[in-house]
Amino acid sequence: MANNKELLNSSKAPEPVGLYPHARRVGNLLFLSGVGPRERGTKKIPGVELDEQGNILSYDIEAQCRSVFQNVRYILEDAGSSWDSLVDVTVFLTNMKDDFATYNRLYAEYFKDNQPCRTTVEINKLPTPIAIELKCIAMID
Questions:
Q1: I need a surface site. Which of 19, 41, 110, 112 has the fewest CB within 10 A?
Q2: Cβ within 8 Å of residue 2, ≥6 positions away
Q3: Do the beta carbons of residue 46 and residue 58 sit within 8 Å?
Q4: Does 60 score more than 90 pLDDT?
Q5: Which InterPro entries is this protein grouped with (predicted)?
């Protein structure tokens, strides 16, 4: 029964910014913590330009979307699941007005073969200078 609530971390996805695992398996479900576009081993965020104080000067939502989707894939695969096993995706955007159309187009490209339930929410800020974060639930064998 100890294996029923397993904490999982990916060796490819960016390190968590707090005390939490990349994912937690409970039964045949895999719950992912919020996943952003950062690259592992660095604070670099694809498509983001910061000033000396860490404020966002500019960002490319397409680059961030692609990076987030890749990071989710890393976590799923390292945990023994897969992209096609996603059943629920919650997306947090910091600028719905400017970014939704691009995000929605890319989402349709990445999820054309698997269509999990989806919720998209605008929030005013994320813990790091990113414009998108995903929270996912997947099936796992």
A1: 19
A2: none
A3: no
A4: yes
A5: RutC-like_sf, YjgF/YER057c/UK114
